[in-house]
Write a structure and sequence with these properties.
Ubiquitin-like (UB roll), alpha+beta, 5 strands
Length: about 150
Amino acid sequence: MEIHVTINGKQHLWQEPPGEILLNVLRKHGFNSVKFGCGEGECGACSILLDGKSVRACLLVAGQVHGREIVTAEGLGTVDDPHPIQQAFVDSGAVQCGFCTPGMVLSTKALLDKEPEPDRARIKQALDGNLCRCTGYVKIIDAVEKAAERMKR
């Protein structure tokens, strides 16, 4: 199946079997920030932004993204020039092992793009489904608040 998709602002053309899971296709094409966690859409490790909405790549087949736009953590910033959300996660100590971080960052971006000044309850709601085994979420929520403040400037 021929799939035309925009990822991180660049056009891609894939030839993939119709039922191939999007998570596998993204990783095959070098988008390694999209992690395999549970394979059931429960952990959020494979979160991407699809047309601006945080979704789980393990729950989609590649054909579902034909003609659409994806953003992965690779598309937000670089080591030398991180996105304000990425920098807020680092500055807040919200990265620990880093496995959940790309999904958390993308879910944060989806939230702040829609709602630039969320309260703590709204942040918790937006991150629901992004599981972290290291931080206990306090530093993550602090990072989202810090990112919101920085992005207002």
